[in-house]
């Protein structure tokens, strides 16, 4: 839909990176009294979410793979967002859930997700987590020999075989080894499979890999290198077996992807002294020239990707591998394809809202806008989330136009919500609301911190009926739905 210009007129980057917005976001931002009422009732920062895009994204992904007549079970990466609403939606839609901790497994089981649709890929699995998975019938993806030894001990005397997957590493792509600290080398998997087969305590149900980054070519290479291994350890392949290709399904955050190239070009000019800085202290945000003099990459989640979501998956499945396409090769070895999307399923599901608390200038005379949230509440593993926030005015008095930087609540000189320079054409006032869009995937929960003993942001879901009250997520209300204000 067309976006009312007024949504963007109060705040933008000095070099803009305008976000894509869902209809529900537009409706709420365009209704300042309702948005202000929500933050007054529930506090700020506040994570406002909708599960409708989540359901839509799942349907699109499953429909895409169905076109290839391939058994498929997406496993929602729970670590991407802690809200129970998404667990409930995944349960009701019949997909699986990828868990990474004792609490995540426990919550999924408590919400009625069947154990056979839960996989545990936690980076560290202690005895309590292993025991919970065994008791709940959860598939455990083993990463190393010590985990295998611990599981052998935990599973002794069990009433049923433990469902196990093996995580792999040792792949190559284009003549380059793909590094990973996770998983067993491909060469060791056959002997581990034999060890599992000889034990009545285990059932090897699949193989798994998770590659860093978002490259479709690297996933294609890894699938191609895993297929012969599956044939080796499965024999006739008559029993159910899965190949899980992990997460890293890319998505796009920008309304106009071309703005990213413009922003990079302007950053390079600023770093070269050819224009005024567009980042705090002219920070390069990791963009340093390489040995060949070519510009480096910015340490930001890639916000302007072109091959995304179902297009990315379709490219993988229709790529030739020998005399057959990847999808046909997977069908021929009778495996169920799995993947573990997090961010891409949560595309369009949430935004984080916080209040402007003060305005000032720093010792260099540069405007600083203090916002009542900290940088961990809209950040993943990258140092920057390169997407312009929006501003919803309050009732406070505002001055002239100003360009400056958004500071957060932590007592450090490095506490900037973004190092990119923002422009407020109509000024900024105490009580205005800063809206960080599309944060549901990792950004609102993955790094959130209670340093200084500040409370964490609460999580509220809007209903499909705009007249219905917002609903506090069960993660904040003891596992039960609870009507919220607004």
Automatic annotation (TrEMBL):
Any one Pfam family match given in the protein's UniProt record, by short name: Orn_Arg_deC_N
Cofactor: pyridoxal 5'-phosphate
Keyword Electron transport in record: no
Keyword annotations of the record: Pyridoxal phosphate
Domain called Orn/DAP/Arg decarboxylase 2 N-terminal: residue spans: 68-261
Ranges of biased composition (kind: Basic and acidic residues): 277-290
Spans annotated as Disordered: 277-297
Protein name in UniProt: Y4yA family PLP-dependent enzyme
């Amino acid at each position: 839909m067309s976006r009312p210009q007024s949504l963007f007129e109060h705040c933008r980057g000095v070099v803009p990176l305008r976000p894509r917005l869902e209809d529900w976001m537009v409706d709420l931002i365009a209704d300042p009294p309702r948005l202000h009422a929500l933050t007054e009732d529930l506090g700020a920062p506040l994570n406002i979410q909708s599960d409708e895009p989540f359901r839509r994204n799942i349907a699109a992904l499953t429909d895409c793979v169905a076109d290839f007549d391939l058994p498929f079970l997406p496993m929602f990466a729970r670590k991407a967002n802690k809200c129970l609403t998404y667990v409930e939606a995944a349960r009701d839609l019949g997909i699986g859930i990828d868990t990474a901790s004792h609490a995540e497994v426990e919550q999924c089981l408590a919400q009625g997700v069947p154990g056979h649709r839960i996989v545990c890929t936690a980076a560290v699995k202690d005895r309590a987590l292993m025991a919970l998975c065994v008791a709940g019938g959860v598939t455990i993806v083993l990463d190393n020999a010590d985990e295998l030894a611990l599981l052998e001990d935990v599973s002794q005397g069990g009433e049923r075989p433990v469902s196990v997957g093996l995580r792999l590493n040792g792949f190559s792509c284009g003549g380059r080894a793909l590094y990973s600290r996770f998983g067993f080398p491909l060469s060791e998997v056959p002997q581990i499979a034999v060890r599992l087969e000889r034990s009545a305590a285990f059932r090897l149900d699949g193989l798994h890999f998770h590659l860093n980054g978002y490259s479709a070519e690297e996933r294609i290479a890894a699938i191609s290198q895993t297929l012969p291994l599956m044939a080796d350890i499965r024999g006739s392949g008559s029993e159910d077996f899965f190949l899980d290709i992990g997460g890293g399904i890319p998505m796009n955050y920008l309304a106009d992807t071309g703005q990213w190239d413009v922003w990079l070009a302007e950053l390079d000019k600023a770093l070269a002294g050819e224009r005024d800085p567009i980042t705090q202290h002219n920070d390069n945000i990791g963009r340093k020239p390489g040995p060949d003099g070519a510009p480096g990459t910015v340490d930001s989640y890639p916000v302007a990707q072109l091959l995304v979501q179902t297009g990315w998956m379709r490219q993988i499945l229709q790529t030739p591998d020998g005399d057959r396409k990847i999808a046909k090769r997977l069908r021929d070895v009778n495996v169920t394809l799995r993947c573990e999307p997090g961010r891409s399923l949560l595309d369009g599901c949430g935004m984080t809202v916080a209040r402007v608390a003060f305005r000032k200038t720093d010792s260099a005379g540069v405007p600083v806008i203090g916002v009542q949230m900290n940088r961990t509440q809209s950040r993943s593993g990258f140092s920057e989330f390169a997407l312009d926030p929006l501003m919803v005015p309050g009732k406070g008095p505002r001055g002239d136009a100003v360009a400056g930087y958004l500071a957060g609540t932590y007592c450090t000189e490095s506490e900037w919500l973004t190092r990119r320079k923002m422009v407020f054409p109509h000024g900024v006032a105490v009580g205005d609301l800063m809206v960080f869009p599309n944060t549901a995937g990792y950004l609102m929960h993955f790094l959130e911190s209670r340093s200084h003993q500040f409370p964490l942001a609460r999580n509220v879901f809007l209903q499909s009926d705009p007249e219905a009250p917002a609903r506090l997520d069960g993660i904040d209300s003891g596992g039960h739905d609870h009507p919220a204000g607004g």
